[in-house]
Amino acid sequence: MNTDDRYNNHRASGNRSYSGAGRGTGSGTSRSSLGRSAGGSMGRSAGGPSGRGAASGAGRGQAGQGRSPGRTAPGTGGRTSGSYAGSSRASSRPPGARQNPSQSHYSSGGHGGRRGRRRRQSPDYRIIAVAGVVLILAIAAVVYGMKHSKKTDADAKTTEAVTTEPETELEKKVTVDGLEITGMSREDARAEILKKYPWEMKITYKEDTYEVSNLMEEKVNLLLDEIYRGTPKESYTLDTSGLEAAVEAQAAAAAAKWDKAAKNGSISKYEPSNDTFVFEGEAAGVSVDQEKLAQDIEAALKAKKFDASIAASAKEVQPEISVASAKEKYKTIGTYTTKTTANSKRNTNVRLACEALNGTIVQPGQELSFNDTVGERTEAKGYQGAAAYNNGEVVQEIGGGVCQVSTTLYNAVLKAGLKISVRRSHTFEPSYVTPGQDATVSWGGPDFKFINNSNTAIGIRARYADQTCTVSVYGIPILEEGVTYSLDAKKIADLDPPAPTYEEDQTLQPGEEVQKSAGSKGSRWEVRLVVKKGEEIISNDVDHTTQYKGHAPVVKRNTSGVVIPAEGSTESTAETSAAESQPGETSAAQDPGPAGPGQATQSPATVPETTVGPANANDNGPAGADVMPGPPIQDPVVPGGPDMGAPSGEIMGPVGP
């Protein structure tokens, strides 16, 4: 055996062998230790069973010579479309040497030229994923459809069972108060019981009737539940116990229909011709005896007389105060007076508001609104334009000055012991009343309201005369004898005035400034409700706090650079101060302070209003009048003019105390 044969045998025995028929058809290919060759037989080699052998045919090259240009004839089949050429790849390699893979070559014979082994095509995983999702959705849809179909079928069966199931009929002999309901359905039994015991109970008083609500309907339902939902007994009786609360409610409802409170003798109207309040006679009241009425209803229920007609009994209630007694008890229980000015237009407004308020009667529990009572202030009613504040500016407003009337009413009502429900302060300090004791009003804006918390009607008297506004409350005393209410207001802080405002005046030299008005500081006031009995102070609690704005100083200057000579006498630089040129009362929001006894929270407001100061702090008006003087008076002279609506030389009160 030559060297090549030993080498071939070694490979064949150490690796794998191929039988006579190879993997393909046609010329076939075979590997030997010496190279590739093309064989004419079927399979990879035409060699023997012990090895791959040497293929016949023209080789690609000779042993030991590498590649040769020779090619095999095209084959008809095989592992590749090409054939192996040459009888040997490495005949020059010594025995035992490893074959270099780079020396292995394929030829492109056959049908399509030379090419390598056919690659296996990899699957498209995207298509597989999409197909999987579609499949899952389809399965889910099928499952859902099956479940829904089953549920629908079940619901249909249940509905059918409910609608078609007949009512249970009693097979056992059962009686209710002797009424046999054997063989009846629940509804039939209910109808028979109600037929035996029809509900027609009513209460009568004189010619009037009250239908009592059916108190046994629920009792019948409970009885039928017991019979038809369990094992029934042979005999039952309709229970009428446990209805005490329902019976009392029916008795109270019937009594409310006929009860009438006794009417005390009191004022009923005002007669303007003689300026007097007219008293109306007392009237007895009616009170139904609710206790007896409830007992009668319960007795009818116990006897199962559900169609009973029960007569209510009532007694006459006498009034506490007769007309004669009322005339003796009625008196002025609160009064207050403030001073106006010589401004005729403003005084006209104060007079008209007093006339609208005068003679008003407030019934027990009723709330009086100043705006609703006085009404809108219009020119058609005679109200005139007077100085008022609007957003901090002095303007002419129809009805300016009526805040003095609402403020006077506020203090009179408080002294009477009535309940304050709505009250607001002005923006700037008033001069006709101590700051903190004012009550601003404006049509469509802030209002002053109080409630008659007494058990008799009260009357309001309001008058203007000789620059004096007085409001009084006429009624039966609310406070204990000797007890008085009053307000005590004290300033607790001064506030810086606003920044100055400037007016252009070309009669001044450029850069020159002249103070037209000095302005004023703002202030904060604490107001206490003082309750006294005789001379003893019972309480002195804070009722509310009020904060007022100051007035901005006004400075004249010339910034144009052009000087125009002044005509006539030079205006004095010591002009009227801001306090002297302001209306005494203002009407803007104030922070509400804590509500005092019987008083509502006092909210802020911003509205226009007019005021002027008192003429003299020591002028207390007519004898017997309760006058609360304003702050100390200075003696500035305010020039008149159309802007202020006041004649020249009018005396005006200071803004500050």
Question: Key terms for this structure?
Answer:
657 residues; alpha+beta; 4-stranded antiparallel sheet; 3-stranded mixed sheet; 10 helices; 29 strands; 22% helix; disordered N terminus; disordered C terminus
Write a brief caption for the model.
The protein has 657 residues and is α+β, with helices and mostly antiparallel strands. The chain has 10 helices and 29 strands.
* β-sheet strand percentage: 15-25%
* Strand tally: 29
Which class do the helix and strand fractions yield?
Answer: alpha+beta
Q: Level of helix content?
A: 10-25%
Radius of gyration: 58 Å
- Strand arrangement within the widest β-sheet reads 13-21-20-14
Describe this structure in words.
With 657 residues, the protein is α+β, with helices and mostly antiparallel strands. The protein folds into three domains: 1-97, no CATH class; 164-324, no CATH class; 330-563 and 572-651, no CATH class. The protein contains ten helices and 29 strands. Strands 13-21-20-14 form a four-stranded antiparallel sheet. A hairpin with a 2-residue loop joins strand 16 and strand 17 (393-398). It is flat, with a radius of gyration of 58 Å.
Topology:
Layout: H1 3-14, E1 29-32, E2 35-38, H2 125-164, E3 175-176, E4 179-180, H3 186-196, E5 202-205, E6 208-211, H4 217-228, E7 235-236, H5 244-258, E8 266-271, E9 276-280, E10 285-288, H6 290-302, E11 309-311, E12 314-317, H7 323-329, E13 331-339, H8 344-357, E14 361-362, E15 367-369, H9 370-374, E16 385-390, E17 393-398, H10 403-416, E18 419-422, E19 449-451, E20 458-465, E21 468-475, E22 483-495, E23 501-504, E24 513-517, E25 522-533, E26 536-548, E27 554-557, E28 637-638, E29 650-651
Parallel strand pairs: 3-7, 5-11, 23-27
Antiparallel strand pairs: 1-2, 3-4, 5-6, 8-9, 10-12, 13-21, 14-20, 15-19, 16-17, 18-19, 20-21, 22-25, 24-27, 25-26, 28-29
Helix pairs in contact: 3-4, 5-6
